Structures
1.
Amino acid sequence: MLVSEGVYALSVETPGPLRTINSYLLKDGNDSYLVDTNWPAHMSIDHLGSAPLKDSWSRLLELFDEAGADPRQLQGIIITHAHDDHLGYLPALQEFTGAPAMLHSKEIEAHGIRVKRDEIWRWDMITWFRQHGVPEDSAVKLVDYSPTFQAIPLGTVHSLSDGEIIKVGSMRWEVVWTPGHSPGHICLLERRSGIFLTGDHVLPHDTPNIHAHPRLPLNPLGSYIDSLKRVECLPVRKALPGHGVVMNDFQEVVSNLISHHDVRFADVVEALRSGPQNAYDVACALPWVGRRMRFMQLSYRDRWMALCETIAHLQALEGRGLVKIISCNGSITWNLIAA
């Protein structure tokens, strides 16, 4: 579907709140680039819950036909971030087209860490959860139910950097580095038209999952909010997300995301007013799922996400100088020092 001059969209339906997985083909003259590859319909996506409902490969090829583009002349496959649903068809597309994958250098590094699941990783994760107050049996279950990522090879890679310009005919797409949802997440801005491809940085119907992880950079939520404030000032007229529908109210959506986290920060601060607590106790004190559920009512998979999000909020508050981390005998607690 043509969504703007030179920009074609493929939206594949998927169950759950994300609604669709979106890919975009940028085409002008003889130049063409694909942004995110979608995901094979026959394979499950653990962090989404199930696979897309449609035959995404045939629809991906139809996208090229609609744009009048020969996939074998594709010049690059731009990956906003290396999560399975944005990366799944990369090996098949690279074999079919010969085009390089184009990712931010930080995302290339994070991808190697994310997919490595061995016994050392497992022990590190269990130890990390225990440090944050999770009981032993629950720590094991949280690791067992943690979202997994496929070991999808990146093949030939071109490393992108913040501010880099990708020329597509008369269009000039600027790489905007937006760490938070992942360390090397990028968006793409075409300033002349005001079209902004947001990946998972800004979504229309859902708050992107921002979680702490022991093997990835500290304070991802602090980075995410800084990235939100950066893009809020950009001259965006139409935003095209990695999931969901086109956003014509981009600045309002960004403002709402910032406000959402402000409320969450207030929840965490309130939970700490009674004294130092570990992240597990804070997570148990917070409301979840539209403020309708308690932590122990969640599935183990959702508890994993909730606890990692809680740690991310605590790290961000530490970065703001509002809480202090206390480490003692391998246990980590958080103390409110200002509010």
2.
Amino acid sequence: MAHLGVILATRRQRSAADPLVWAAHLSVVEGEWSDDIQFETDRARFVGRGRTVRAAAAVGDGWPLSNTSGPMLDPVFSLRRRLTLPPGATARIAYWTMAATTRDGVLALADKHRDPTAFDRAAALAWTQAQMQLRHLGVTADEAHLFQRLASHILYCDPALRPVGDLIKAGLRKVSTLWAHGISGDRPIVLVLVASDDDLRLVRQLLRAHQYWRMKRLAVDLVILNARVASYVQDLQIALDTLARINQPTSEGAHDPAQGSVFVLRTDLIAPEVRDLLQAAARAVLYGDRGTLAEQLDRARDPTPARTFPRRAPGRRRSLRAASAAAAGVLQ
């Protein structure tokens, strides 16, 4: 809709059960700008022959946008505005992308956000809402940033927090291997291995991370694997079960498995192929005896051959790997 400066898009429903979604893209300028708004909806024209998105012809060569619309196999949202900036002047451009279930609904959203002050208003409301959510969960801003860093490993399958390739290959099995323990395998898995009461600090932090991800609609299955040797396993297992239970969300939809769940398992009570598959399938594997979540993420970001893992305080029980090996002989 050129007269409104808005690009509208929808996808044909494949069946009557498919939800209908309308999307809109617009830009709002604070400052002097010319009336001509260029737009492009065809990615091939925007990128150009033999080019890539990083070096698109429409950007690098300054090609004018085609101002065409219609059915597209490979669509793109692209808007171009021309601004006039006198010396010392400033201008701001806000780009909005929004969605609704109806055409009228998405047009109403676009009209609402054409106000230049809409961005400041939305940013203030988002900041206020975020502070209230963090206070409700008992999460600090620094912790939230930490949970977001871990979420990037979950979303993009970063190998830095995964086992080495040989362990992944050895653990590959049918996902149905996990079904007996209630784990569907449909959602990303974060695996944490613990063997000592000192590891409960990391477990508590990951339980808060799980609640934070649920609030952000990121569905993750958190699997806590208790690898303490059999003679000591019960006390730690009770503590883990208690933590998992008291950290279950109580809000609406808290018991919806589609939002991710928490599982507490014991290495001596699950089959070796289950342990192997959990390690192979997990997007991130964390260890209770390798420091805090921040330390493990920092090491993953800057892996150096000379790095060493934090040592236990004197008198601490055997390391997680030793305890796990004693219980199962596999977690190496």
3.
Amino acid sequence: MPVLSERVRDLRPSAVRAMLEAAQQPDVISFAGGLPAPDTFADIKLPPASADLWQYGPTEGEPALRARIAEDLAVIGLDCPAERVMILSGSQQGIDLAAKLVVDRGARVAVESPTYLAALQVFRFFGAAFVDLQRSDPAPGWRGESPALAYVTPTFQNPTGDCWSADERRALAEACDAHDVVLFEDDPYRDLAYDACERRPVASFVRRASWIYQGSFSKTVAPGLRLGYLAATADLFPHLVRLKQAADLHANRLSQRIVLDHLNEPGRGERMARLVDRYRRRRDLFADAMRTHLGEHADWRAPPGGLFFWATLRDGRSAQALLERALERKVLFTPGDHFMAARGAPSSGMRLNFSHPGEAAAERGLAILGELLAGA
């Protein structure tokens, strides 16, 4: 057997990818992944064939798409020219690039707990030591040895669906400035807002520290395009470009043209409004079904945006134990254990995706979970 690197020997498979594979089985009801509803995908029309689409392109991405994204970033408060925007092969690549840039073995990375499990997987791969990030006042935990990186999803947080307040966003920005911590703000859900809440990027409040801000087109256009983007401060951006060049040279040019055409579509605003209304209705129906079937067994708050409910089982029940029983009834969800920075930390939390299963399937799946909890 070949001698593998230390990093690979400690690499574990993604829990969500395994669940997505299980979800392909007939009759499975899955609340596990962050899948958008197929009927919300953009009506994609292939652009006319042209030689430039089939040739190698710039690592940073297509200039017209970068300029268009920079315009949108300016609207939400980020002063970032197109020269500091890079197109990614999905936002997961941005997490990988940021980790390669900042995280050496033993480097401290500040995260919420729970936080996005795929980010934890990448940071662990590079040997990160996690520091708990308290969003109301992150600075106390950073005294002494400051973290190298602070990773957050402040707008419709994954997995909880929470939306940070303006004060919490300022507090993190000020802590990054004071302790010279690189901010990494992951913002894939910001356009899926169902209730009013603060959505201004944390990065827009940063005055001195370095930052990376990234978004995705997977939730609002189509995930199969595998396209996202990042913007970064001038000191970090050239290094990120070199890292991407070493990883895949550049993102798919056809996908970039499709997304650019979508962003420039005259009816894009109306389409987005319909998409948000559709998801808001799904969220509300899902909340009604949760009250009916889980109301005696769990606590939760309806998320103001995004794709997930985060429910906490009462009496300290294990969500992992519930999943093992639910699998026998062909129902999937993601237990909270996978979102915890401390490996092996038991959790009563469970993330439930409401965007992908249809109304009838969601009702059946939640009814099964309620039956299992009632019979425990």
4.
Amino acid sequence: MQRHASCLSDAGYEIILVGRVLPNSIPLKEMNFEQKRLSCWFQNGKLFYVEFQIRLFFYLLFMPTANLIAVDLDTLLPNFIVSKIKGVKLVHDAHEYFVEVPEVTNRPLTRFFWDAIGKACIEHCQLVYTVGEELAIELSNRYEKKFECIKNLPLLNNEIRALNSNSDLPIVLYQGALNEGRALENLILAMHQVPAILWIVGEGDLSKQLRNLVIEEQLASKVNFLGFVAPIDLRKITKQAFIAYNLLEPKGLSYQFSLANKFFDYIHAEVPQLCANFISYQRINEKYKVALLLDADINSIVKALHLLLNDSVLYNELKANCKKAAQVYNLQNESVVLLHHYQKLCS
């Protein structure tokens, strides 16, 4: 959201980006737009969602605004209600197929609740969009409203340099949420058989479980948890990696239609990656072979890691293709699409 907010701000729009503060949140960096974090008593579960909806509703109600942008279904209801009260335009930005994520698909009542919100509110939005072409088609069919595609891409910046890793072994990097369906357990277990070290950047529902697994498997010397990292530092860390990781298990349609931010972050860092063999990644990899597409079982992970560690011809081919792909898939190019839709919205 910082990327899109910055683009809109540069184009002359006044932006306020609203989120929530967590106990381990890193301090906000000064940006060219206003940022606000809401504090909640509850940090997860149903009580958190109830509290957050209420707090967001009252914040939006008393905040001067011309347009409201709801990111994912869990912010849509308070934005929808306030848009009706104030008579302002409403935008929905779907970062994922919310009702098809593993945390929701296994809970029928929760899934029904969020899907009902989507079906009740999305038809009243003046603009709806998501991160990939395939997901846009799927969401358009589900909610009977045309979703546009605006990819979440990094800024093309060739001046970013890697930090010194102080590591004698090649680095395998995962960045992102530590949640169900990312096959992170398999990645950790694979490190028993790979002459490399693993860096895990981010936190999530599985933070404690994954750390305990590392201790149980006696892999503390090979697996390092870096926690939350500021975006500018994350780019420098990513450039240190030799191989990046973006595998997913086929749990829910959200993952099967995904086009993760990290996929493009790895490309811009010119780091070959292990990637889920799903449709959005297949389409891009057919144009620019930047990744090995594979299943998320341990044997496949180990085999792919060994291949990239030992086949310098293949590795350098993927690395060179990353540089080419970054010239196409970048925020400078995608901002043209973003601004077109918002100029049309505000005209």
